[in-house]
Design goal:
5 helices, 122 residues
Length: 122
């Protein structure tokens, strides 16, 4: 009886290797998840791509790099100021809309012209 041979693309293999290295899942779990046969497939793929298991030193390096990617206090202050200004702008838009509505109602009900006409000379 012939065995079924699965042919995986290099992209898929690389994705599985990255998942193994980054998530801490065992090779057996990944083999079951992706229906990968053979006991050494993922290890062979790791050798093919020139990767190895993550060491404690590499984990510490990744954590240090992620801390550097955090925002600086200045960036956080600037983002807070932007949010504050956006909120103030929205309030002014609402205020302007309310005033325009009030003028429209006054002009309609009182039948007087409140807005200055653009073509009039002073």
């Amino acid at each position: 009886m012939k065995r079924k041979v699965n042919h995986f693309t290099d992209d898929f293999r690389f994705q599985v290797v990255q998942e193994y290295l980054n998530t801490g899942k065992s090779q057996a779990e990944l083999q079951k998840k992706y229906s990968i046969g053979g006991n050494n497939c993922i290890s062979n793929w790791m050798r093919k791509f020139g990767t190895s298991e993550v060491t404690v030193e590499q984990i510490n390096l990744q954590q240090a790099m992620s801390k550097e990617e955090e925002k600086t206090p200045r960036e956080r202050r600037l983002e807070a100021k932007v949010k504050e200004l956006e909120k103030a702008l929205e309030q002014e838009r609402l205020r302007t809309l309310a005033l325009d509505t009030m003028i429209n109602i006054a002009e309609r009900d009182l039948k007087i012209s409140i807005r200055k006409k653009s073509g009039t000379k002073q």
